[in-house]
């Protein structure tokens, strides 16, 4: 794929279809109606002209906190068209979290739909660089007079019309190049605070011409429907990049996906390509949808996390459609490793997508042998340029042309890859590595299990042992936890079987449906699940062995002074994160814990030590620059 000197993703995805005679083909279907390629192209030109009339310049950021509707899609394309940077963010974030992303990105314009106006109102208080807010579909954020300009969607379009009437050049396609910024996507937060992965215009074409064209075989006759939303890397590829790259049709659904909503869209829109995530496929299998619900669908795809083989088989047996399981990442923009039509091996994520190179590496950087676990690295033209304002994290993840995925994999002699979990998910039991994914797959083979998550929890001797947290199927009836332990022992080596099974109503997930293992650990560690208590030592288990007094929060033992800790290991099961050490950064779970115990901590930031919080007062952990090394102590 040789890149021409000028390349703009909006022309590649949209405008060229008019030149090639596909202007009257339907680009978007929603419950409200249809939009043709010609209509979408005209809308994008109006929005791009409006952006310019607002004073936006090349590389300025436009943040989108919006539901999956035509204005959201058009706003993204208009940013590409005008040489701006589209920053779609999760609609599940709180106002405080959104404010952090607005400030981090330096967005000058925020586009939001009515249902997220309240959160955006809160966020704007932390984002002084925002100058304009555009409200779609009703009441917008509560904006104080004189602070910034508020616009309705209709007023924005009218502004674009006036700008085009005064100077048609305001609607011109920006002369971007293949390496120009096009899209920033914030990571989903499964491994810590979100970071913005910066993607080029050419990266968009790469994911279309590799996975979409060569694996999915997408054509202009296809109609795509994705339960993953546009703010997610997986979703923006499924619902925008892939269908528009060939002049196909995309189905947009603003509502939260449920089996009932999906069935409605399947019946009304008759999609041919369906995109989901494993947790949603599990929900579909457990639903009361008719067996012919997917009659129009020729192929399903799954990503976000590995698809267990038992779940894959259940879905295909129930609905008669195969699922292509693959894996991608926000940093790689979309899927780089996948099963293919006619070449599906359940329990694996397939082989490298054409155009990508994969390596499984040992800890020392050497290549792992066949069937030897190692860290997965990927090289491809869609890899992000790095993280915005996260130099240290960029150096760790983006290593030359290679991207460290953070996943542990094994590759067999035929080139099929099997995920063992995140690098940080692997645990040792009896000195032998155990893959949570393998144990979860065995649990999912049980007819009474809908979802499962396996994490390591230390026993009374401070040794990690696998513990399973399970959601039962609606029709499972009474399934004793002990039966599930026995089920695993029958199908796995005994050291891999969970020492305990905890039954819960639901598993914690991100807005994009990924399992949040650190919250599963916290569920067990903090004793919120009654059946977990047997695996966690009593709150005073290590008091006699610690040379300093311990802090208690209720009945839960917390940190001791790390400088005097003898590292006995006995307190680890009831600590939500690793012991605090010098020169470390906030990680998963730290922020809330420190906030809850602010009175006991000081923070040294930029050489200045000060109390982190007052007894009975609110800690300001969220105000810290968390990429700055912190020294946290008493």
Automatic annotation (TrEMBL):
Q: Which InterPro entries match?
A: 4Fe4S_Fe-S-bd, 4Fe4S_Fe_S_CS, 7Fe_ferredoxin, AMP-bd_C, AMP-bd_C_sf, AMP-dep_synth/lig_dom, Benz_CoA_lig
Q: Which residues form a coiled coil?
A: none
One GO BP annotation is:
secondary metabolite biosynthetic process
The prosthetic group or cofactor this protein requires is: [4Fe-4S] cluster
Q: Which domain of life is it from?
A: Eukaryota
What UniProt keywords apply to this chain's record, in alphabetical order?
4Fe-4S, Electron transport, Iron, Iron-sulfur, Ligase, Metal-binding, Transport
Pfam families assigned? AMP-binding (PF00501), AMP-binding_C (PF13193), Fer4 (PF00037)
Cite the Gene3D superfamilies for this sequence.
3.30.300.30, 3.30.70.20, 3.40.50.12820, 3.40.50.980, Luciferase, Domain 3
PANTHER family, alphabetized: ACETYL-COA SYNTHETASE (PTHR43352), ANTHRANILATE--COA LIGASE (PTHR43352:SF1)
Q: Protein name, please?
A: 4Fe-4S ferredoxin-type domain-containing protein
Annotated source species: Rhynchospora breviuscula
């Amino acid at each position: 794929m040789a890149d021409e000197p000028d390349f703009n993703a909006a022309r590649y995805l949209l405008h060229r279809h008019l030149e090639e005679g596909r202007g009257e083909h339907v680009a978007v279907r929603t419950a409200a109606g249809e939009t043709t390629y010609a209509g979408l192209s005209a809308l994008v030109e109006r929005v791009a002209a409006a952006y310019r009339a607002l004073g936006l310049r090349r590389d300025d950021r436009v943040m989108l906190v919006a539901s999956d509707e035509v204005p959201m899609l058009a706003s993204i394309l208009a940013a590409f068209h005008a040489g701006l940077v589209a920053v779609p963010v999760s609609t599940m974030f709180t106002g405080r979290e959104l404010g952090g992303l607005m400030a981090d990105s330096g967005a000058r314009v925020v586009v939001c739909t009515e249902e997220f106006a309240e959160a955006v109102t809160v966020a704007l208080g932390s984002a002084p660089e925002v100058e304009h807010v555009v409200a779609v579909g009703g009441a917008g954020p509560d904006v104080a007079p004189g602070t910034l300009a508020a616009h309705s969607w209709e007023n924005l379009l009218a502004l674009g019309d006036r700008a085009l009437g005064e100077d048609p050049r305001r609607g011109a396609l920006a002369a971007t190049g293949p390496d120009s910024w096009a899209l920033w996507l914030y990571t989903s937060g499964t491994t810590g605070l979100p970071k913005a992965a910066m993607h080029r215009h050419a990266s968009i074409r790469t994911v279309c011409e590799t996975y979409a064209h060569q694996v999915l075989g997408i054509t202009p006759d296809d109609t795509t429907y994705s339960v993953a939303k546009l703010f997610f890397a997986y979703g923006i590829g499924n619902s925008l990049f892939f269908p528009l790259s060939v002049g196909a049709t995309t189905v947009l659904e603003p509502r939260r996906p449920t089996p009932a909503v999906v069935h409605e869209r399947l019946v009304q829109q008759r999609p041919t390509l369906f995109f989901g995530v494993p947790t949603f496929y599990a929900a579909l299998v457990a639903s009361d949808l008719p067996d012919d619900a997917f009659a129009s669908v020729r192929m399903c795809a799954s990503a976000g996390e590995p698809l267990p083989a038992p779940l894959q088989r259940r879905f295909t047996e129930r609905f008669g459609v195969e699922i292509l399981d693959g894996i991608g990442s926000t940093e790689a923009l979309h899927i780089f490793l996948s099963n293919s039509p006619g070449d599906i091996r359940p329990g694996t994520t397939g082989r490298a997508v054409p155009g990508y190179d994969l390596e499984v590496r040992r800890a020392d950087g050497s290549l792992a042998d066949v069937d030897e676990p190692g860290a997965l690295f990927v090289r491809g033209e869609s890899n992000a340029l790095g993280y915005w304002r996260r130099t240290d994290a960029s150096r760790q993840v983006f290593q030359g042309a290679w991207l460290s995925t953070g996943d542990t994999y094994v590759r067999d002699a035929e080139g099929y890859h099997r995920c063992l979990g995140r690098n940080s998910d692997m645990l040792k039991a009896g000195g032998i590595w155990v893959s949570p994914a393998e144990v979860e797959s065995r649990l999912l083979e049980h007819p009474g299990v809908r979802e499962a998550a396996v994490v390591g929890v230390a026993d009374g001797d401070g040794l990690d042992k696998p513990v399973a947290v399970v959601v039962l199927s609606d029709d499972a009836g009474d399934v004793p936890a002990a039966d599930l332990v026995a089920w695993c022992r029958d199908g796995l080596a005994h050291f891999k079987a969970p020492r305990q099974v905890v039954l819960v109503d639901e598993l914690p997930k991100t807005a994009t449906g990924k399992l949040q293992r650190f919250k599963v650990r916290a569920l067990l560690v903090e004793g919120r699940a009654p059946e977990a208590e047997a695996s966690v030592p009593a709150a005073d288990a290590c008091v006699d062995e610690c040379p300093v007094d311990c802090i208690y929060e209720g009945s839960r033992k917390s940190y001791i002074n790390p400088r005097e800790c003898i590292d006995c290991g006995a307190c680890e099961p009831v600590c939500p994160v690793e012991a605090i050490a010098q020169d470390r950064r906030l990680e998963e779970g730290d922020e809330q814990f420190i906030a809850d115990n602010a009175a006991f901590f000081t923070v040294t930031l930029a050489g200045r030590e000060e109390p982190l919080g007052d007894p009975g007062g609110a800690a300001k952990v969220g105000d810290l620059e968390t990429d700055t090394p912190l020294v946290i102590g008493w």
